[in-house]
Amino acid sequence: MATTPNLRVRPKGNNGLVHEVTPDSARWTYVGFALHKLDAGASAGGSAESDELCLVLVSGKARISVDGVDLGELGERMSPFEGQPYAVYVPAGSIWSAEATTALDLAVCAAPGQRGKYPARVIPPGTHALITRGKGANVRHVTNILPETDPAHSLLVVEVITPGGNTSSYPPHKHDTDNLPHESFLEETYYHRLNPPQGFAMQRVYTDDRSLDEALVIEDGDVTLVPKGYHPVATTAGYDLYYLNVMAGPKRTWKFHNAPEHEWLLK
Length: 267
Prior knowledge:
This protein has 267 residues and is mainly beta.
């Protein structure tokens, strides 16, 4: 059996393609994630091939085109902590390009797609309402970017802001068993940012039998891989945490199972 890869992926430098998680590098099947950090005037692009993509403007502005169709200059927030994002759905088989018109952090979320079924589209801020979940020190603020109610083949994308000192993805939950309608199997990545950026957070990824049990120190720009198991997050006092989640699996639905010993926290 293949060993589990390092679940904490550090960025490769400060410019250009700083993250490139693929199913091969993560040793799984469905989810891919890339992050481009571009100066104004620089560009990125590629072919979606057999994957569908969701381009998320984490911060900054860019002129984006899909299959030669100019979608215009998109983006308005200069930080992931300043409101909701612009995003673009890119169908499988399409060619996309992005030219940064300001400093730009562009996430490329990927999962298996279906050619010819869903057209390219812009997903502007306000498409989905901001949701506040939890109470007390478990409050976090959620923006669905590409939820299961929106058209796509397998990709699910959401971003979350957790205020300093709070927990998130908590009580611990998992989605690693194909047992619908009770639980769905979904691989997941977390792309983390902190405000101010010198802060840190903690994330634990573990299974019931503890065959996987890793506690990770998360710094600004890190990616966490969640191949299976529970995956709670806690940020430290004074430092707000942003994360962008990408999920995909054999069925496009998010059905999770809470750790039973911690479900009392929901009462």
